[in-house]
Amino acid sequence: MTRPRDSQRSKVYAAEEALRTDITEDDALWIADKITHSRWWAKRVNATLAKSPVMFVDFNTCGARTASQVRGGTRTIYLPFKARSSVTQLSVYHALAHLIVTDDNIAWHGPEFCRLELEMVRRFYSSSVESNLRTEFRKRGVKTRTMSEEAKDAARERWYVQKEKTLQSDLERLLKDLGE
Ligand SMILES: [Zn+2]
């Protein structure tokens, strides 16, 4: 299987930009340190990455470039921000999420990535920012669930709607059966 087209990238960037908070490099490193020293992180990355220190590097891309470090077995986690004029809080979560979501069969900024970013923001930043980011995603049609997950939810929804319709008669039949 090949990696699907990365159709959500610019929408994800725009959603993060709408909630932009500029921070210093020191702050960004502090946040990244906190996340990468957590048990949550250690459970999701390989042993090498779990012990790698974080530093800034002089490039400005994410996705392929960020994740390629993982395969290279690096002993340093690079935050690709130096080329930008400023660093934003959400971009730290974004970059670190790329180091966890490395499956070849999913898009760089697909539903799995977005859901993980939301989880990290809720866990290490704040639940109100997570809720705002979710809203910004929704406004732009950014998907946080895969197509099969959406299909499952829709099927469940249909089942409940159907159940609701027949609940009354089901209950009446049950009571009648009990009475007999
Ligand atoms: Zn990215």
What is the structure about, briefly put?
By secondary structure, this protein is mainly α.
Structure description:
The protein folds into two domains: 9-144, no CATH class; 150-180. It contains nine helices and four strands, in the order αβαααβαββαααα. The protein has helices spanning 9-18, 25-36, 39-42, 47-50, 64-71, 89-100, 111-124, 127-139, 147-179, and strands spanning 22-23, 54-56, 77-79, 87-88. A two-stranded antiparallel sheet has the order 1-4. A two-stranded parallel sheet has the order 2-3. Strand 2, helix 5 (64-71) and strand 3 form a beta-alpha-beta unit. The structure holds zinc ion (ZN). Zinc ion (ZN) binds next to helix 6. Zinc ion (ZN) is lined by residues 62-63, 94, 98, 108-109.
Give the SSE map.
Layout: H1 9-18, E1 22-23, H2 25-36, H3 39-42, H4 47-50, E2 54-56, H5 64-71, E3 77-79, E4 87-88, H6 89-100, H7 111-124, H8 127-139, H9 147-179
Helix pairs in contact: 1-8, 2-6, 5-6, 6-7, 7-8
Bound molecules: zinc ion.
Zinc ion (ZN) binds next to helix 6.
Properties at a glance:
single chain; 180 residues; mainly alpha; 2 domains; two-stranded antiparallel ribbon; two-stranded parallel ribbon; 9 helices; 6% strand; binds zinc ion
Task: State the domain count.
Answer: 2
Q: Specify the overall morphology.
A: elongated
Helix amount, in percent?
55-70%
Q: Note the run of SSEs as H and E.
A: HEHHHEHEEHHHH
Cross-sheet strand order for the largest sheet: 1-4
Overall structural class, as computed from helix and strand content, comes to mainly alpha
How many helix segments? 9
Regions with little confidence, pLDDT below 50 for 5+ residues? none
What kind of sheet is the major sheet? 2 strands, antiparallel
- Overall mean pLDDT: 84
